[in-house]
Amino acid sequence: MIKIKIDQDKCKGCLLCVNFCPRGLIKKSPKLNKQGLNFVEFDLQGDCSGCLQCAVICPDCCIEVYKSE
Ligand code: SF4
Ligand code: SF4
Description:
- By secondary structure, the chain is an alpha+beta fold.
- The protein has helices spanning 16-20, 53-57, and strands at 2-6, 26-32, 38-42, 63-67.
- The strands form two sheets. The chain has a two-stranded antiparallel sheet. It has a two-stranded antiparallel sheet with strand order 2-3.
- The longest helix is centred in the N-terminal third of the chain and has 5 residues, at 16-20.
- Bound molecules: iron/sulfur cluster (2 copies).
- One iron/sulfur cluster is lined by residues 6, 11-17, 40, 57-58, 60, 62-63.
- One iron/sulfur cluster binds at residues 4, 21-23, 25-26, 48-54, 65.
């Protein structure tokens, strides 16, 4: 099982991860973080492959990908 953790208060809403996720599992939130920016959210129902592209592309290292048994 794959779990994605996004540091929403650190996210600047650049949407790079949204554009790079091959499965379209990351979306812009209508909510604002502490910086007053729209952060991104992971689709918990989605079938994440754990490809790490979102974590690698984020310029601010906001995304962590965990694999569990
Ligand atoms: S690990 Fe890959 S499939 Fe999963 S959310 Fe990130 S980019 Fe998308
Ligand atoms: S790439 Fe990083 S900073 Fe940009 S929207 Fe995604 S999580 Fe936020």
